[in-house]
Amino acid sequence: MTRKTPRVEETSEKDLEVGKGPKHWAAGVPGVYHSMVPAVEQMGLNRTRKTVMKMNQKDGFDCPSCAWPDPHHRKAFEFCENGAKAVTWEATPVLIPASFWAEHSVSELRDRSDYWLGMQGRLTEPVYKPAGEDHYKPVGWDEAIRIITEKLKGLDSPDEAAFYTSGRTSNEAAFLYQLVVRGYGTNNLPDCSNMCHESSGWAMGQTIGIGKATVNFDDYANADLIIIMGQNPGTNHPRMLTELENCKHNGGEIVAVNPLPEAGLHRYKNPQKVKGIIGRGTSIADQFLHIRIGGDMALLQAVSKRVLDAEAKNPGTVLDHAFLAEHCEGLEELKEHLAQLDEQAVLEATGLRSEEIDELAARYLKAEKVIITWAMGITQQKKGVATIKEIINLLLLRGNMGKPGAGASPIRGHSNVQGDRTMGIWEQMPQSFMDALGEEFGFEPPREHGVDAVETINKMQEGEIKVFMAMGGNFVGAISDTNAAEAAVAGTEMSIQVSTKLNRSHVVTGAEALILPTMGRSEIDIQESGEQFVSVEDTVCAVHPSWGSVEPVSHHLLSEPAILSRLGKALVGDKIKADWDGYEKNYDLIRDHISRVVGGCEDYNTRIRQEGGFILANGPRDSRTFPTPTGKAVLTVNELEHVERPAGTLILQSMRSHDQFNTTIYGHNDRYRGIKKGRHVVFVNPDDIRELGLSDGLYVDIHGQYQDGVERVLRKFRVVSYPTAPGCAAAYYPEANVLVPLNHTAEGSNTPISKAVIVRLEPSVDQTPDSPARLHAAPGAEAAAPA
Fold it and tell me: Which domains does the chain have, with CATH numbers?
């Protein structure tokens, strides 16, 4: 494949354009345009046809973006704008040449933006940076595996290494990865879920016994009411908008709860329908609750209290008494607790009026089938676990669990993060899984719990973790407290990245560093036994196959299962009963093991080949059975605590722009929020701008307000007047990560609290818009102990 010159359009602060606030509709013709034009420009017409048009099709590959499920009756354009961007980014024919590594030192690359790094093209050969040197250099696969193996075998303990996983890894690769790691001797398996939906898993596991959605795909269209909390479907999972539109057409209602208005929840122009092209589209949210950051828990308690009050006024007519009596426990304790709820405290915490909460409660009481769906706007709060328990409380009160059109629905934002966890990627897998794994492979797996993402950084800082390996992702870009995280990784003895393209984690390295290039999901995978496929699990527990559709960009690439098979053979060898050579040749052998180890995956190879794959069993959804210690769903008592905002400060949340996926930056625009050619902005309510003595367009320094002896500052961000909830502000992720202290985490789940950062805005000394935009945190941030 011929390398094209990367088109890298870095911006400066003077290039920034700010529109007139948020857009009022999403998708439509612009969505198609911004999907297809970049794809054709960057990949060519033929490669675009073979990738974008095969994405999410029954004989194609699964979208490498979000985990939104595929419909039963798929259309030719069963993709969204950001999904098309994701596959364009991955399947690009632009390649990094061998000369690149001699031309660019690691120190130089560290000063480049994540956008620039990603635009250099696909990685095609393993590279190695020896200790004491500042350049990667190409090495062969055998040499790369030898270097890694010798280092890992030379550690005093396997627990001195940590093995991270991103959510794009297939089920087969994830199962093989955890087998290699546990065969090596550690449970140090942090993953991206630690930073996003860990709160969902903890809360749902403790209340209904399973940390997954209790709805299926069709339930969205058949619900009477869908309450959408802490998420932006128009950008983060746009295909969800089609099902929200179907719900509206079937007579359902939708309520949006968010600190910012989002275009997709206002109006949706479906590009596959005529009225989505030339008409006004579909109005989505019947009610928008402009909630204060951190007020969701108080809102949910207030609605539950109104439900209980309605039952008290008309006994036997409101609650689902039969369901509660047979399947639940804790009702009386919840009643007693909510009877004491202070309405004024609720209003202060939420920033809402009682009438708005009354309206939501009335909608809930009227509906027979209710779905509550949420994402990281809920999970990344200090009380994220408790807030999700309150979601479960509200659903259980009227039996909205285990019946069509109703249930709890966390929306996973990465394509196979849920499947990776099912396959064993967790530092705390249950003993039943470990028993089955040990029996299948004839060894005793390590039983002591490993470290999560935040604990990994802490142990790096303490010198206890010396080697870090990542199967995909951008760990240092994604984790909180950017400067602390980068310093921790830089203090390790070796870092290893399995990747398709460059990102920040490749240039913030241990003393030694390796990059192992892997195939993308869109690429045809031919092994000795023939063409292979992999499988993934979506957000509603549907498991389906994924087949590559284009030739790999280089014959030097290995698939993830092949890389892991070779590493397993060298590192673990015959310590366990594993056919390492066979796994690389034929992925069916991996799936045979999965069928005997992973609950619900029996006869995996047969079922995954059925049309549409298969759906994993889900007790709460399928049969109203709850795998909790008592066998019942648990209504819980949670103490209300809202985020305090000292005078002169704001509560800041981080968020994605429309031109990015997680830490991957596709461009510098955020079309739905009116931002072009820049990312260094902070969105602030106009009343707060006046109250703080600032002005729209002013450059400010954003100071984190934490009493831990560390100054965290983002320099020179432009104030953008925007309808955020009063007292609240927003800035882009990952830039804002630098403001989140490492151990500022959610109670129970240890998830970074990226949605409730107390900040102070001060005018920047330099008000001249002439410096280059800094698209990663470190050069624009300071983190030092005060003098």
Answer: 13-88 (no CATH), 99-193+416-532+551-607 (3.40.50.740), 198-410 (3.40.228.10), 650-784 (2.40.40.20)
